[in-house]
C-alpha cells in the first residue's frame, strides 16, 4: 500500500524522450511562433490548464507568461531591477548568481499584448534532469494579502509557519528503468515534521542509490543563498521558490543527443562518500566560524586576527567543495525563482532565512542516513 507520502505521485513516464528531440506530438502542439508548453515543469500554472503558463522558446529559453497585475508586473520589475545594466548595488549584483539569467520580455507577433519573461532554462545543460520546486518562507501570502487570501494559503499548508518550506513538485529520473517519477503539490502538502526527511529524500533516490553527492552539492548551494540572505535587509520574498536540479544520468554509457558521453555523475558516488562527508563537516565548521567571525568583526576582530588558524580550514573546505563538484561534474543547480511577491523591506527576511535553515537541517539529516 502507498504510504501517505506517496499520495501526490502523479504519473510514471516509462520512457524519457531524448532532450531536444522534436517528436511528432511536440510538433503538433507547437504554437506561438514555435513555442511549446514547458515539458519538464514540476509546479505552478500550466499552459493549457491555467489561464497563464510557462512555455519553451525554440532557442531553449523559458517563457513565463506575466500574471495579471499586480503580480506579473511586480515580478517583471524585480527581474528588471536585478539585471539593470546600470545597476551598481552590489547586493543585487551578488543575487544574480542565484537567479536564472533574465533576457527581458518577449511577446508573440500573433498575440502582442501577451507578455512573457524570457529566462534561462535552469535545466538546459542536464541530460536527464531531476527537478524539485520548494517554496521557501513561513508565509505564502504577502503583507498586503486580503484575509481571504491569507486563509486560503494557510489552509493549503497549515504547517508552513513551522516548517518554513513546502515541496511543490518534483520529477526524479530512475536509472534502472529509464523512466521518471513525478510528484505534485499534494505530495508535499502531505509532509510534516516526521515525514519530511523521507519525503524529500525521494528526490535524491534514483531507484538504485541515494545520490549523496547531489545532496551535498545542494546543501552547499543553499548555504550560499543563506549567506546572501544574511547579508541583505532590503528585500522580502513571499511565496518564492528554490528550483533544484541535478544530473540523473549516471551510467557511463549514456550517450547524449550530440553524440558525446554524458558526465559520469554518480559513478563515483560511493567512492567519494567519505570525502563528501568530511568536506561537509569542515564546511559546516567553517560557516559557523564565518558567521561568528562576522559578528566579532563588528567590534573586535578582523579576518587576519583570527587566533586559531581556522582560515586554513575554510580554504580546505572550499578546496574539497571544488573537488566534490568535479566528482559530480558540478551537476547541481539551485536557483531562486518565482518573484511575484517580492517587496522592499528594512530588515532581514526572517521567514525566508528560517525556511532555508530548516531545509538545510533536513538535507543534512538525509546525508546522515
Ligand atoms: N527558469 C526556469 N528554468 C527551468 N524551469 C523553470 C524556470 N522557471 C520556472 N520553471 C518551471 O516552472 C515551474 C513554475 O514556475 P514559477 O514558480 O515561476 O511559476 P508559477 O508558480 O506558475 O508562478 P506564479 O506563482 O507567479 O503564478 C517551476 O516549478 C519549474 O518547473
Ligand atoms: Mg511557483
UniProtKB/TrEMBL annotation:
Residues 298-328 are annotated as: Disordered. Residues 312-325 have a biased composition (Basic and acidic residues). GO terms for molecular function: ATP binding; inositol-1,3,4,6-tetrakisphosphate 5-kinase activity; inositol-1,4,5-trisphosphate 3-kinase activity. InterPro entries: IPK, IPK_sf. Keywords: ATP-binding, Kinase, Nucleotide-binding, Transferase. This is Kinase. It comes from Triplophysa tibetana. Belongs to the inositol phosphokinase (IPK) family. It holds the Pfam family IPK. GO terms for cellular component: cytoplasm; nucleus. PANTHER family: INOSITOL POLYPHOSPHATE KINASE (PTHR12400), INOSITOL POLYPHOSPHATE MULTIKINASE (PTHR12400:SF51). It catalyses: 1D-myo-inositol 1,3,4,6-tetrakisphosphate + ATP = 1D-myo-inositol 1,3,4,5,6-pentakisphosphate + ADP + H(+); 1D-myo-inositol 1,4,5-trisphosphate + 2 ATP = 1D-myo-inositol 1,3,4,5,6-pentakisphosphate + 2 ADP + 2 H(+). GO terms for biological process: inositol phosphate biosynthetic process. Its EC number is 2.7.-.-. SUPFAM superfamilies: SAICAR synthase-like. Residues 298-311 have a biased composition (Polar residues).
Amino acid at each position: 500500500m502507498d504510504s501517505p507520502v506517496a499520495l501526490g505521485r502523479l504519473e510514471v513516464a516509462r520512457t524519457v524522450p531524448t532532450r531536444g528531440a522534436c517528436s511528432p506530438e511536440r510538433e503538433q502542439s507547437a504554437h506561438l511562433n514555435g513555442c511549446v508548453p514547458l515539458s519538464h515543469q514540476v509546479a505552478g500554472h500550466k499552459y493549457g490548464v491555467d489561464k497563464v503558463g510557462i512555455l519553451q522558446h525554440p532557442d531553449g529559453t523559458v517563457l513565463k507568461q506575466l500574471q495579471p497585475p499586480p503580480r506579473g508586473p511586480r515580478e517583471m520589475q524585480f527581474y528588471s531591477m536585478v539585471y539593470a545594466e546600470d545597476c551598481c548595488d552590489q547586493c543585487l549584483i551578488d543575487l544574480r548568481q542565484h537567479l536564472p539569467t533574465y533576457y527581458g520580455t518577449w511577446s508573440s507577433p500573433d498575440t502582442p499584448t501577451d507578455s512573457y519573461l524570457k529566462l534561462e532554462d535552469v535545466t538546459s545543460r542536464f541530460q536527464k534532469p531531476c527537478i524539485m520546486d520548494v517554496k521557501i518562507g513561513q508565509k505564502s501570502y504577502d503583507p498586503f494579502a486580503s484575509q481571504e487570501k491569507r486563509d486560503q494559503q494557510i489552509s493549503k499548508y497549515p504547517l508552513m509557519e513551522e516548517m518554513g518550506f513546502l515541496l511543490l513538485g518534483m520529477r526524479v529520473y530512475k536509472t534502472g528503468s529509464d523512466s521518471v517519477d513525478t510528484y505534485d503539490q499534494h505530495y508535499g502538502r502531505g509532509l510534516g515534521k516526521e515525514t519530511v526527511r523521507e519525503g524529500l529524500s525521494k528526490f535524491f533516490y534514483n531507484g538504485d542509490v541515494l545520490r549523496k553527492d547531489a545532496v551535498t552539492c545542494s546543501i552547499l548551494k543553499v548555504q550560499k543563498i543563506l549567506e546572501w540572505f544574511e547579508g541583505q535587509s532590503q528585500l522580502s520574498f513571499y511565496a518564492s521558490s528554490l528550483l533544484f536540479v541535478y544530473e540523473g544520468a549516471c551510467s557511463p554509457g549514456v550517450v547524449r543527443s550530440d553524440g558525446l558521453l554524458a558526465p559520469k555523475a554518480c559513478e563515483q558516488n560511493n567512492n567519494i562518500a567519505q570525502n563528501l562527508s568530511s568536506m561537509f563537516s569542515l564546511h559546516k565548521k567553517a560557516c559557523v566560524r564565518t558567521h561568528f567571525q562576522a559578528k566579532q568583526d563588528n567590534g573586535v576582530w578582523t579576518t587576519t586576527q583570527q587566533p586559531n588558524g581556522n582560515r586554513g580550514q575554510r580554504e580546505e573546505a572550499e578546496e574539497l567543495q571544488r573537488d566534490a563538484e568535479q566528482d559530480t561534474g558540478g551537476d547541481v543547480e539551485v536557483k531562486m525563482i518565482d518573484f511575484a511577491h517580492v517587496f522592499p523591506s528594512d530588515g532581514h527576511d526572517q521567514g525566508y532565512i528560517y525556511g532555508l535553515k530548516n531545509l538545510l537541517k533536513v538535507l543534512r539529516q538525509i546525508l546522515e542516513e
